[in-house]
Design goal:
- The protein is α+β, with helices and mostly antiparallel strands.
- It has four helices and five strands; from the N terminus they run βααααββββ.
- The strands form two sheets. A three-stranded antiparallel sheet has the order 1-5-4. It has a two-stranded antiparallel ribbon with strand order 2-3.
Length: 117
């Protein structure tokens, strides 16, 4: 049974400006494993990656129905499998978390589906 669905879209130009201001935002958003992956990306991919992970966390909060103010962003972790597909490894939810992330030249979008199993 589906408990919640959330979607979020992030502007890459806005994310680039935030990233250029310093590491504080990245440290707040990315878990240590997400950050380790981020560190090995080129500049363009870093923007897409952070935007995508932030969109996942926003979409998760919407699917859960709590909003971000009631969540620790470090409690939601999305990694990438060998095929390049994202998967949620850590989240404050008991059940299955489905995730999809996509990018255009200007935006990143993420969708979360929370399934009670």
């Amino acid at each position: 049974m589906i408990q919640g669905i959330g979607v979020d879209i992030v502007d890459l130009a806005r994310m680039q400006k935030i990233i250029e201001k310093g590491e504080r935002f990245i440290a707040r958003i990315l878990t240590p494993k997400e950050k380790a992956y981020f560190d090995n990306l080129n500049a363009r991919r870093k923007i897409e990656y952070v935007a995508g992970r932030f969109a996942v966390k926003e979409a998760f909060a919407k699917a859960l129905g709590t909003g971000l103010r009631n969540l620790d962003l470090q409690d939601i972790e999305t990694l990438t499998n060998d095929s390049g597909a994202p998967y949620v490894t850590k989240a404050p939810f008991v059940g299955k978390v489905w995730v999809s992330i996509s990018h255009t030249k200007k935006t990143a979008i993420a969708q979360i589906i929370l399934e009670i199993i």
